Amino acid sequence: MSQEIKEKDDEILEQLTNSEYKYGFFSDIEQEFAPKGLNEEVIRFISLKKNEPEFMLKWRLKAFNFWNKMKEPKWSKVKFPQIDYQDSYYYAAPVQKNKPNSIDEVDPEILEIYNKLGIPLNEQKRLQGVAVDAVLDSVSVATTFKDVLAKEGIIFCPISEAVQTHPELVEQYLGSVVPFTDNYFAALNSAVFSDGSFVYIPKGVRSPMELSTYFRINAASAGQFERTLIIADERSYVSYLEGCTAPQRDQHQLHAAVVELIAHKNAEIKYSTVQNWYPGDKEGKGGVYNFVTKRGLCEGDNSKISWTQVETGSAITWKYPSCVLKGDNSIGEFYSVAMTNHYQQADTGTKMTHLGKNTKSRIVSKGISAGLSDNSYRGLVKVTKKADNARNFSQCDSLLLGNKCGAHTFPYLEIQNQSATVEHEATTSKISEDIIFYLNQRGISTEDAVALIVNGYAKEVLNQLPMEFAVEAQKLLAISLEGSVG
Amino acid sequence: MSLLKITNLKANINDKEILHGLDLEVNQGEIHAIMGPNGSGKSTLASVLTGREDYEVTDGKVDFLNKNLLEMSPEDRAKEGLFLAFQYPVEIPGVSNANFLKAAVNEKRKYQGLDPIDAIDFLKMMREKAKLIEIDPSFFSRSVNQGFSGGEKKRNEIFQMAMLEPKLAILDETDSGLDIDALRIVSNGVNQLKTKDNAFIIITHYQRLLNYIVPDFVHVLSNGKIIKSGGKELALELEEKGYDWVKDGTI
Q1: Cα–Cα distance for residue pair B50/B140, rounded to 1 Å
Q2: What is the ipTM of this complex?
C-alpha cells in the first residue's frame, strides 16, 4: 500500500473518531446514596430501602457470600484494569418527596432528563403503542400505560414493586434461569440489584403494545445493577425493548445487569436491545463496563425466545444473551449487531443449549469494528443427548473499517446427539477505499456511503427490530460512524 | 457545445508521472474512443477525471461544462453529470441495487434542487431502463454486484449509467471479459442512451467494440499523451498494424 493511501486511511480514522456521544449530559438532581463500598450492611440497607420481604434479603445475602468467594472471570478477550468493587456506590436514587402515583407526580427534573433523551414519559406525547418503564440509576422512576395493560391482566412494573405486590411470582421465578451461582457478575447483581422491570403476561394474552424499559445511569461512581424478569405464560406473546444511555464521565461506570426470560408452552418472547451506553472518549478514557447476563428459558413445548441486540456503546461489552431450549419443538434466536469504535472492546455472542426434541436455534451475528477497537463473537451451540433432531444455523460476519481494529470469532460446538444438524458460516470483510470511491462516483458522499454499507451489512438484524426502533437503530449506527471513512 | 476540455494535463501516482501533458476536447453528441497499449495511461486518465485521490495532478486544467473539474469532490463531479463505468466494479454486500441507485438518484436530485423521487416513479424508471439493458427485475433486490459474473457486473454499470443519465460517460474497458452476447447488449444500451446532448469516452484495447459503438473520433494514447487522432477508420488501421505503427510514426 502506498504512503498516500496510508495517509488517507489515517485521515479516515481521524474523522471517524471525531463523532461525539450525544447523550453525555449529566443532570444535577438530588440523590440519595448507600454508603460507598460493598458489604453485608450495604445489602441490608438496600433491602431495607426497598422494604423487601425476608426471602429477598436472605437470597441477596446468600448471593453476596457466594460472590465473595469468587474471582473475576478472565476468559474473555477484553482487557481492563482491576475494578475496585469497594470504590463504587451500590445504591443511588433520585430523592422524590413522595412516591409518585402517576406520571404527573414525577419530579419535573427527572421528566426533563428523559425528554432530553427523546423518551417523553408523558403518555399523551408518547409514541403510540409503547409502554415505558424508566429506570434512573438504581430505581424505576415512572412506568407508563400501566392501566391499559392491567385491563389485559398484564403486569408491567418495577421489579421492586413486584416484590411487594406479587411476591409469589418473584420468589418462584427470580434466579430460576440465571441462578446467583451462575457467574461472577450474576452473583454481584443478585446481591445488590435495586430495580429493573418485571413483566408477567397471563395465559393466552398477546400484549397489545410493545413494552420497553429505558435505563439511564446518572450518578458518578455508581454502578447500575438492574434485574429484569419476564414471564410469558402459556400461549402468550410479548415484545420487549430495552434502551440504555449514560453521561460522559472520566471514570468508568459499572453496569452488571441480569435479564431472565421464561416462555411457557406455546408462548413467545421477543427481546430487543438498543444499547448505547457511553463508550468512553477518543483516548479510551471513561465509559461504561457492561457485564450483563441475559438468558431465556423456553420452558414449554413450542415456545420461542428471540434476542435482537444493537450494541453501539460501552467501553467494554461482555454479554451473551442465551436460550435454553427445554421444551420440545422450542425455538431460540439471536440476532446481533455489535459496533465498536475508538478503544471500545466487545466480547459478545450467545449460547444455545438444546435439551428438548426437534429444537431449533438460529444465530446471526454482525460485528463492525472501527478505530482501534476490538470486537469478538463468542458463541456456544450445545446439543445434549436427548435433544433428537436439533438444528442450528449460525452466521458470524465481521466488517472492518480501517486497519487498526480487530475482529475475532470463537464458535464452540458441543454435540452429543448424532441426529443434530449444525451449520456455521463466517465471513470477514473490509470497507475498502475502492467501495467508497465507487459510491462517491455515483454521487454519494463518503459519510452516506459508510452508512449505506453498514446498514446494508446489518440489515438482516435490523429487520428483526420493531419498526419504530429499527429506524432509531439505523440512525444510531450512522451517528456512531459519523465521518468514518475519508 | 464543449462538455470537456482537457489542456496539458499532467498527473502522478506515487511520484511517478503517468500523464505527460494530455489534450482532449469532447463536445455534446460525440463518441470518442481512446485506444492504446497497456500502461499508456488510459485508466489513469479515467481516475484523474473522476477524482480518485491516489492521483496527483501536477499541471494543466480540465473544464467540465465550463467549470473547473479538478477542484470538485468526486461526488460533486458525479452530480454534475460525469459517470465512470468501472473496469473492475466492486461488490457491496447487503446493499440492494435498488437502494443503492435510489440513494444515487436522490443525491443528484438534491444537488439539482429537486425533491427525492417518488417510490413508484423510481420503480417505473428502473423497469424501463432494465428493459433497455435486458436485465431481469429480480436483479433490483440483489446486492450490488455480489455474486455477479464479470459480464453481469459490466451490464450493471451500463444500467446505472442509464439510471443516472450522465452528460459525459467514460467506459473504462467495459468490453474486456464480455462474450459476444453481452457485448451486443452493452453496445445496444449505449447506442440507445446516446443523445445530441450527451457524450461518451470509450476506453478500449480492441477494435471489436467499435464495430458496435461507432466512434466519431479515435485517439491513440501512448506514454501519457495522445499521439494520434482520427476518425473511426483509425481503429481498423491500428488493429491491422499494431500500436508500434503509430509510435514509430511519431518518433
Answers
A1: 26
A2: 0.95
Element (H, E) at A211: strand A210-216
What amino acid is encoded at A222 in this protein?
A: A
d(CA A72, CA B175): 62
Residue B132 half-sphere exposure, CB side, CA atoms within 13 Å?
Answer: 22
Mutation choice for A interface testing from B54, B69, B84, B92 by most A CBs within 10 A: B92
Which amino acid type is present at position B161? Answer: M
The structure's pTM equals 0.79
Among B79, B89, B90, beta carbon nearest to A443: B79
Contact by Cβ (8 Å): A244, A216:
yes
Cell numbers representing residue A388 in the block? 433428537
> Angle, to 10 degrees, between the axis of helix B97-111 and the axis of helix A446-462?
150
Mutation target for B interface from A337, A436, A437: give the one with most B CBs within 10 A. A437
Cell of B192: 440507445
Q: Identify the helix (H) or strand (E) that includes residue A454.
A: helix A446-462
Amino acid in the structure at residue B244:
D
Q: Do B90 and A434 touch (CB under 8 A)?
A: yes
Residue A432, Cβ neighbours under 10 Å: how many? 13
Beta bridge partners of A336: A309, A365
Mean per-residue pLDDT pooled into runs of 10, chain B (251 residues): 95 93 96 91 95 93 96 97 96 90 95 93 94 89 91 93 96 88 88 95 90 94 92 87 70 40
Cell of A370: 472501527
Of A439, A445, A459, the CB nearest to B94: A459
Q: Please check the confidence at residue A128 and state whether its pLDDT lies above 50.
A: no
Check A4 against B73: CB less than 8 A apart.
no
Which of A366, A440, A442 should be substituted to probe chain B, the one whose Cβ sees the most B Cβ atoms within 10 Å? A442
Q: Write the residue in A3, A443, A458 that is nearest to B75 by C-beta.
A: A443
Element (H, E) at B43: helix B42-50
CA–CA min distance B130, chain A (Å): 18
Q: How many CB atoms lie within 10 A of CB A27?
A: 16
Angle at A172 between CA A168 and CA A173, to 5 degrees: 120
* The C-alpha cell that represents B62 in the structure block: 480540465
Task: Report angle CA A152, A158, A162 to the nearest 5 degrees.
Answer: 70
Strands, E assignment, chain B: 2-13, 16-27, 31-35, 55-64, 67-68, 82-85, 92-96, 143-144, 168-172, 199-204, 217-222, 225-230
Helix intervals (H) in A272-419: none
Residue A429: its chain B contacts at CB < 8 A? 93
